[in-house]
Design goal:
CATH superfamily of the largest domain in chain B: Nitrogenase molybdenum iron protein domain
Structural class of chain A: mainly alpha
Distance between the termini of chain B: 69 Å
Shape of chain B: globular
Mean pLDDT of chain B: 88
Radius of gyration of chain B: 22 Å
Oligomer: heterodimer
Distance between the termini of chain A: 18 Å
Strand content of chain A: under 5%
Low-confidence stretches of chain A: 1-5
Number of strands of chain B: 10
Low-confidence stretches of chain B: 13-20
Number of helices of chain B: 14
Structural class of chain B: alpha/beta
Helix content of chain B: 40-55%
Number of domains of chain B: 2
Largest sheet of chain A: none
Shape of chain A: globular
Number of helices of chain A: 14
Radius of gyration of chain A: 21 Å
Order of helices and strands of chain B: HEHEHHEHEHHEEHEEHEHHHEHH
Order of helices and strands of chain A: HHHHHHHHHHHHHH
Number of strands of chain A: 0
Largest interface: A-B, 31 and 35 residues
CATH architecture of the largest domain in chain B: 3-Layer(aba) Sandwich
Mean pLDDT of chain A: 85
CATH architecture of chain A: Orthogonal Bundle
């Protein structure tokens, strides 16, 4: 286990951590503006500002088209992308501390695979409508995580949980394979597109359903920074510092499942954000979770907004599945980080 | 005097222009079979964008693509400023179709089922929306007549295997597929009627089914790497069809699209079954 990168003291300390957070927030605003303005249809920044102030001439069909696209299509999508990215990266940071491994992500204990299994089952056995698909994916991710937790509890430490997670992932994977085999032509195509992930379904109703829930849970998760810092020292050490280790582990896993489950249901598989972003933030800021958790949220939001923007503009007027973009950029970037770390 | 006349006629001309403009002039189509119908009806010049499955006719291929119809790009469609969107009922994501409607766009959804009845509904729906009702009726009558004529020919009941491939591993078409419906209409017997949907071929199973004719699509043949590679595949090589090299290759939309070229597809299949040169 490579614990060197997890040391609390930053390997390359940023002069002002608060400044770093401000910088990330500014970057997020910039990316959001770019993303609102540039797409299959260019909307000039001036027009965005005028629309923002409600200055829309009634006899200008172009402005009205722009307003519709801004408010009904792009804004919910950008907000949802920022929210999803923040939650994915936050969960990733939590998982990396919990497992004391920079390569950990929530998927390790079956959260994503369980969600995917629920969704695939809903598509193949049921109607595949969003009303069924969402709850099925959420239920799947919770069930898989619960299985991994209860089976893994019999071993001391995190090893049992990891092993159970590996087994649950394998079982979910093979069941997904079985459902894929049983699927007919039409279901197969829905499966493929769901699996690659997309923010294209983002809408105000969906956002109003998910945003309060995810933000509340994220705030709750941010309060565990002391416990996560203590966990970095080791489970025994955390225990000696006065943290009830078993209850803590259960709470953190539950939090991750409750955060990631609805996201998997709403967006499909979006890889690499939860893995790369916390890692990058740790390189920049060190592993103090008081800073790392909010920085990961901001960084994740930037990452996903940027990735979704690229997905929209890469093959105009068509659009790439976002999962492809995050993996395509995240994968090589992660390799670069690993190799650079080796050389230093 | 002249200027006075102009003053009177100009508003009239504008009014006439308005009446003509009621027929949609910027159409985006999501679904290859629908595109083919619109072009057959002679409305190809009004189509401003299509999805990736619209591969016929060649003029449609050159139009801007808004993604695959099952996952089209909402903004891509809006950017083309359409006044009509024709969508297969398989087009999606469903949220995007809803959003188009919410934004005040006229969206007409047509059935994608591989049946003659659904084909007629598609043609009537598109002809109605494009204000080409008479052309639509003519096209349906012609198709009905041609398909009926082909149905009167004795069905060969030839044992047929239909292969579709996206990689170098071909899949066989079972029942409940567009491919199966086409074979049935052409009077051919699908050897894989016992299976549901498309499944990877079981090598031993294929030889045991003894297909006498193999039907495949242009893109499938490309994916497999050509007709010789296909016929040399273990399992397929042992079939009577491979030994006699009885293979029919149709373009993907012709074979699976259930579009206005259905009689052409049926005719080619029947000729191949009757042993004439494919």
């Amino acid at each position: 286990m490579n614990t060197a990168t997890l040391a609390i003291a930053p390997s390359r300390p940023w002069r002002s951590p608060a400044g770093m957070l401000g910088l990330l927030a500014a970057l997020l605003m910039l990316l959001a503006l770019l993303s609102l303005s540039i797409g299959a249809l260019g909307i000039p920044l001036q027009a965005i500002i005028r629309i923002g102030f409600g200055d829309i001439p009634a006899n200008d069909p172009e402005m009205q088209l722009w307003r519709d696209i801004l408010f009904d299509v792009r804004l919910p999508r950008v907000l949802f992308g920022a929210l999803a990215g923040a939650v994915l990266a936050l969960s990733g940071a939590m998982a990396q501390a919990l497992f004391r491994n920079p390569l950990a992500e929530p998927g390790l204990i079956g959260i994503s695979a369980g969600g995917a299994l629920g969704a695939v089952a809903a598509i193949v056995l049921g109607s595949g409508s969003l009303l069924v698909l969402g709850p099925a994916a959420f239920a799947g991710s919770l069930a898989a995580t619960a299985c991994a937790y209860h089976l893994g509890r019999r071993y001391p430490g995190m090893a049992g949980l990891l092993l159970a997670g590996v087994a649950i992932n394998a079982i979910c994977g093979s069941l997904i394979g079985l459902f894929t085999y049983l699927a007919d032509d039409q279901q197969l195509r829905s499966l493929t597109f769901w699996g690659m992930g997309s923010l294209a379904g983002a809408s105000w109703p969906q956002l109003s359903l998910l945003a309060p829930w995810l933000l509340l849970l994220s705030l709750l998760a941010l309060r565990y920074w002391r416990a996560l810092n203590a966990l970095l020292l080791g489970e025994r050490e955390a225990c000696h510092l006065g943290f009830p280790i078993k209850a803590l582990r259960r709470t953190l896993i539950l939090l991750m499942a409750l955060l990631i489950g609805p996201l998997v249901a709403a967006t499909g598989g979006i890889g690499f954000v939860g893995l790369v972003v916390p890692h990058l933030m740790r390189l920049l800021l060190g592993a103090d979770h008081r800073l790392l958790l909010p920085a990961a949220m901001l960084g994740g939001a930037c990452g996903l907004v940027a990735a979704d923007w690229l997905a929209r503009i890469a093959v105009v007027p068509a659009e790439l599945p976002i999962g492809i973009v995050t993996s395509l950029i995240g994968g090589p970037f992660f390799l670069y980080l690993l190799l650079k770390g080796r050389a230093a | 005097m002249k200027s006075l006349l102009r003053l009177i006629f100009l508003p009239l001309l504008l009014l006439a222009g308005q009446a003509l403009a009621e027929a949609p002039q910027r159409v985006v189509i999501l679904g290859g079979s629908l595109t083919e119908i619109a072009f057959t009806l002679g409305a190809g010049d009004r189509v401003v964008g299509v999805d990736q499955s619209s591969i016929y006719p060649a003029a449609a291929k050159a139009l801007p693509k808004v993604g695959y119809y099952r996952a089209f790009s909402l903004e891509g469609v809006l950017a083309l400023k359409p006044d009509l969107i024709l969508a297969s009922d398989q087009a999606g994501p469903p949220a995007a179709i809803e959003q188009l409607r919410r934004l005040g766009k006229r969206v007409i959804v047509l059935p994608a089922a591989p049946t003659l009845a659904a084909l007629e509904q598609r043609i009537y729906g598109i002809a109605g929306a494009l204000q080409l009702r008479n052309d639509g009726r003519e096209l349906v009558t012609r198709l009905q007549r041609e398909v009926a004529a082909q149905q009167r020919l004795p069905a060969s009941r030839l044992r047929t295997l239909l292969l579709i491939s996206r990689s170098d591993r071909p899949e066989g078409a079972g029942r409940d597929t567009a491919a199966h419906s086409t074979l049935q209409l052409a009077g051919l017997q699908n050897v894989l009627a016992g299976q549901k949907g498309y499944k990877p071929l079981a090598q031993e199973g294929i030889a045991a089914l003894r297909p006498e004719l193999i039907v495949t699509s242009t893109m499938s043949l490309q994916a497999v790497g050509g007709i010789d590679k296909l016929l040399a595949m273990p399992g397929i090589a042992q079939t009577p069809a491979a030994r006699q090299r009885r293979v029919v290759v149709l373009d993907d939309l012709l074979l699976l699209g259930f579009g206005p070229r259905l009689p052409e597809a049926l005719q080619q299949l029947q000729q191949a079954a009757a042993g004439k040169a494919p």
